[in-house]
């Protein structure tokens, strides 16, 4: 079972805030099965903290999707790539 499917099954079972947040990306992509999406929507309706988090998450996705790549300074791009290589380099 994939990592995402494992999270989905947990959400179907207990619908904790942590589990709902774990599948928000898939929820916003529209890749969750309809039954699970309805469970997420119900949780967001009933949980003001998760609803606020989801609203912020959606706004960040929208705004970052609108950023033109050419406006990212080369130096910053290089620093980010270097930091990612160092962070995820095999030991």
Amino-to-carboxy terminus distance: 28 Å
Shape from CA axes? elongated
Q: Biggest sheet: strands, sense, closure?
A: none
Poorly predicted sequence stretches spanning 5 or more consecutive residues: none
Helix content: over 70%
Short characterization:
This protein is mainly α and 91 residues long. Helices cover 77% and strands 0% of the residues. The protein has six helices and no strands.
Notes on the structure:
With 91 residues, the chain is an all-alpha fold. Helix content is 77%, strand content 0%. It contains six helices and no strands. The chain has helices at residues 3-14, 17-22, 24-29, 34-46, 48-65, 74-88. The radius of gyration is 17 Å and the shape is elongated.
Give descriptors for this structure.
91 residues
Please give the structural blueprint.
Elements: H1 3-14, H2 17-22, H3 24-29, H4 34-46, H5 48-65, H6 74-88
């Amino acid at each position: 079972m994939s990592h995402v499917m494992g999270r989905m099954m947990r959400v179907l079972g207990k619908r904790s805030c942590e589990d709902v947040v774990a599948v928000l990306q898939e929820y916003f992509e529209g890749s969750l099965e309809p039954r699970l999406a309805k469970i997420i929507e119900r949780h967001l309706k009933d949980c003001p903290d998760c609803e606020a988090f989801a609203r912020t998450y959606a706004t960040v996705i929208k705004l970052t999707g609108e950023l033109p790549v050419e406006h990212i300074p080369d130096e910053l791009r290089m620093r980010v790539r270097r930091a990612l290589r160092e962070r995820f380099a095999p030991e």
